[in-house]
Sequence to fold (535 residues):
Amino acid sequence: MTIHAVADSLALPAASREDRLRGVLKVDPAQVGGAERGKVVLVTAMTPTPAGEGKTTTVIGLVDGLRRRGVAAVGALREPSLGPLFGVKGGAVGGGKSRVEPAEPINLHFTGDIHAVTSAHDLLAALVDNHLFHGLCPAIDTVTWGRVLDMNDRALRRIQIELAGGASGVRRVDITASSEVMAILCLSRDLEDLRARLDRIVVGASDGRPVTAADVHAGGAMAAVLLDAVRPNLVQTLEGSPVFIHGGPFANVAQGTSSLMQTRLARRVADVVVTEAGFAFDLGGFKFMDLKARAGGFDPAAVVLVATVRALRFHGEAEIGVPNVAAVAKGLQNVVAHVEAARRLGIPSPIVCLNRFPDDSPEELAEIRRVLGEAGVAVVDGFHFAKGGEGALELADAVAAALAGPPPAFRPPYDPSMPVVDKVRAVVRTVLGGTDVVLTPAAERDLALIEQLGLAGLPICLAKTHLSISDDPKVRGRPAPFTLKVSGITPAAGAGFLVIRCGPILTMPGLPARPAAHDIDVEKGPDGWHVRGLK
Fold:
């Protein structure tokens, strides 16, 4: 099916479309009318493992399965970052028979949206430094705005940047996915909202008062750089189902959701919108509801939590590829912890989808159904990797049944007006299942500055390890009662939240001893040059 035929199936006006890569359209939401009618299905997961659990694959399979059942469904995904692509995780286009096309261009640069975010972020950094160099007003005595790069480069964690005018300030480079500009792109309702949010970015302080992007006259130029990037991208699955791909924040260092503009557009052209949030429920799943859905004025109508037998073995302290019923039973407590957190937040019936592998044993599957059945959790098998939409029909039926019932009502664990520490404590107890929170001296200093700047009333976004529900990446399964350690707090006033850095979280990842980049190359075939080796 041509991409324009896919767009026709959504009744997207011709004026809203612009051809980009072969099989990719840029879509202008401002040219698409209609009410936001579509129900949103959130796909989240248990705590991730080295094997990968398959949220993106599940979104794609579920969209194909729903459309096989006659449901007008559309997918809404994030854009891949080059950092994970060349590191450990690989690309983000799904897998097997549940993937989107064109896979290689999507994984490599796509339509340049992430590069535009990098450029807009670093343009602001350059204008801040220029402001200092020329001694312009307002005088900046503390700089809090760093630089970003869409690559895993641990050497840049300690880069030294000399600031003009004797100002103190940041000496870091983060990955683009953690940029506040990326968060703004993904939380803005439209271009007008994005333009206003850019002006509110806090870049530093002047005599105890915040200095913003508006003060250094950067917002307009940044918006110009992002003008094309604000338009969502339309692609299709192998079965011809429509999928929007837009925005790419990580859920461990940012909110981990695709753009609100994309979701609002999808809700206008489909009855069901299937989307995912990064990493596990304690990170992207919760942030989807607390930050994105709050900004968009909607709640998810159903929640799917992806799990695998291999991941359960891992969280049960056993080898991933070897059947082990006892380990699966132990690892199931990780799933139960996420389900209980969802229920405390007003999501009473998340659907657990077992993304199936050939080495899943009947005994392990029986144990999963026994334990989760006792917890009142619906469990369905997913064979979408191997069979595409046909393998996701059981999941599609379970989701359709959930959508026909009463919608869940998200209960926020805190009010933004609460003191910052109380907000963090509420998330720790409600979402993570921890007991309390403690701030390091550095975090105490950050908090004092945030209160001085008048920014303490913002919602919060926890930046913590994705490898554990706790802030210790070595703790698998369901952590014993723990106290969350806050190591720093950064205002993201334009995005509309405070970034709460927990434990040893890093905003610039590094590469492994054998990165995926070692296996990527180009080769010449009968029809020209191609990329090989992408995961």
About this structure: The radius of gyration is 22 Å. The domain at 420-502 is CATH 3.10.410.10 (Formyltetrahydrofolate synthetase; domain 3). The chain has three domains: 40-111+232-404, 113-226, 420-502. Residues 113-133 form the longest helix (21 residues).
